Amino acid sequence: MNKESKQLKQDFYSLSLPDIKAWCEKQGLESYRADQIFTWQKKGLTEFAEMSDISKDIRQRLTQEFDAIPLQVSREISSAQDKTKKYVLALRDGNVIEAVLMRYKYGYSVCISTQVGCRMRCAFCASSALSFVRNLSAGEMLAQVALINRLNNSEVKRVTIMGIGEPFDNYANLVEFLKRLNDPKGLNISLRRVTLSTCGIIDKMLEFVNECLYITLSVSLHAPNQGIREKLMPTAKKYRFPDLINAGEHYARKSGRRITYEYALFSGINDQEKHAQELATALRGRNCHVNIIPANEVPGFPFRPSFETTIQRFMQVLEQNGVNVTRRRELGADIAAACGQLRRSYEGA
């Protein structure tokens, strides 16, 4: 539920460069001012007073018409084990989301949310306990990246769209965000450095191919067959397992990007050798790889992590069958292990 109902001004991060150009023309300003103003989005602007190369008069006009940023940090937690940071971000309407900064050997990656809550109701996901409220705008997604980039000395090199929400359930805003993220005059983050995680919304996957925004697609599979997947993920009742694998192959073929299948192992449910063999049969010969995720144990949820020997054997079976497999590096386990846990604790869920 929204915490506030008051009318909000349009926020600065919702403005594209053409929007700012139109505003400058309406204000009777020189055309070059639009580029100057737009540049401040990639700097993670939080107050118009920060615009050191913009006159006080223009800053006042911007303040009168727009909010500088659509979110702010309510809480930041740093891992004692690694350099992971998790943020609770308060939106202007009083709702909260979360984002995560992770450190890898190639640099920093920020994981952002696309919705307040989620409609997918995956049985194992902490976010499933958070009721869906609304979609995030492209500006709210962009602001997550820009602000966290600023707070961490512009070290963010990659973006993962794996936070709260199903990205393809917010399709139009997602596409706009990706275009803005990739804008050479904006944050200018290469699409090759963007990964999107989806529950497998097949119709949107197929539509997305035609956008020619060739990011890395990561499909949350978590099962070797239709029956197990339906028990874990309600969306599987609409989007069938064989059709999902074919959609992934189509995306890989059209984009030239190898697709990733995320597979969280749950003890006694999907982690046995027979499950690995079945998964290998479904994926053998396809342009993909499997990312094994040792499951997080979420308080109040019945799922338990697999034993280490079970994880190793599962991966071994895939490798023996010619399926590329990696194991996800576990980061920030001491600061809320699963997506949505930080927001749940913040809201007292």
Report what the structure shows.
The chain has helices at residues 17-27, 32-42, 56-65, 138-151, 171-182, 202-209, 226-232, 241-255, 273-283, 308-320, 341-347; strands spanning 10-11, 66-67, 71-78, 85-91, 96-104, 107-111, 115-116, 134-135, 156-161, 194-198, 216-220, 259-265, 288-294, 324-327. It has 349 residues and is of the alpha/beta class. It has 2 domains: 11-67, Orthogonal Bundle (DNA polymerase, domain 1); 79-347, Alpha-Beta Barrel (TIM Barrel). The strands form 3 sheets. A 10-stranded mixed sheet has the order 3-4-5-6-9-10-11-12-13-14, with helices on both faces. A two-stranded parallel ribbon has the order 1-2. The longest helix has 15 residues, at 241-255. The chain is elongated, with a radius of gyration of 21 Å. The chain starts with 9 loop residues before the first strand and ends with a helix.
